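Open question from group meeting: does this chain pack into something compact, or does most of it stay loose? Before anyone orders reagents, we agreed to write out a predicted structure and look at it together. Recording both the input and the output here so the notebook holds the full record.
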Amino acid sequence: MTAAIRRHLALKGRITFSEFMRLALYDEREGYYASAREKFGIGGDFYTAGQVHEMFGALLADEFAAVWQTLGWPGDFAVVELGAGRGEFAHDALAALRAKHSGCYEALRYVICEVSGPLRHKQQARLAAFAPRVAWVNDLGELRAPVQGVFFSNEFFDALPVHLVRQRGGQLRELYVELDADDRLRFCEGELSGDAIADYWRRVGVPLEDGQRAEVNLEAVKWIGQIAQTLALGRVITIDYGETAERLYTPDRPEGTLRCFHHHRLNNQPFERIGEQDLTASVNFTALMEYGRDAGLETKAFTRQTDYLIRLGLLERAAELAGRAEGESPQALQHRLALKHLFVPQGIAAYFKVLVQEK
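Structure tokens returned:
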């Protein structure tokens, strides 16, 4: 992937960081998500909540069924998951719907929007038992519109390519990627690559200190607009790590929130291990709310994942599960440790927010 990017730069001179990130993550041959290398769990680079405990999917299944009921029990009800990883969440949600909400399950089309070929193969294998209910698309344009149902994502928006900007002398400058005299990748500053970046920052950014860096996620704006256009009636549930703009771009983050993960270790070297490590940036939820409102999505809730899961019944489910697991058996201990990560301050949920929008 590094060689491919060098060839790209030899032709173009420089590219935006968004273009670099797109190549590094999504290049069809050498990108991070195109490779068969394990990305999730203990053998990969990071965990998601759906891989921690099956209860995560079961709780969201109750929420999906509640939306189906609110819409009047439609005979064609869709749950569209954006980027499904290895399919753990989809499996757990579908199993819970089939067991507990049979009417919703019979009306269901579970659609996974996935561009990674290796991940799609893993999803298809894991979801084989639910094959009649599951379909895959590469983008939302392939959906049968209009959709009644739910658009769900867990750690999707944080993986979208971002532009990098830096405040310099009272103006926003963009950070590009170029080659130095020794053929090594480096950043260089220049004018903004488009008016959309300035428009985005005026609307959903905050004043930056001189020299401070931040991310501009125009892809997130594009996706929330497509979701709103495709959704006729229903709900959008976005779970990701991030914050509102005023909390996200504070002076204690002078280099923004861009970071890299490799074998569960955090680093800030995007030009190292290109195609072999994950690149990610915290989600600006102010942008999703503001641009979503323009497209007809009303914000119903914005809260910590901990509080959201508790509202869905996490504590009651956990108590029930603890009652079924006997004593200090290895299984009981495993369940308790996994559940801890869903709601204690030191767990996964402490860094995640949930945005619920409706149309």
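Observations to bring back to the group:
The mean pLDDT is 88.
The longest helix spans residues 55-70.
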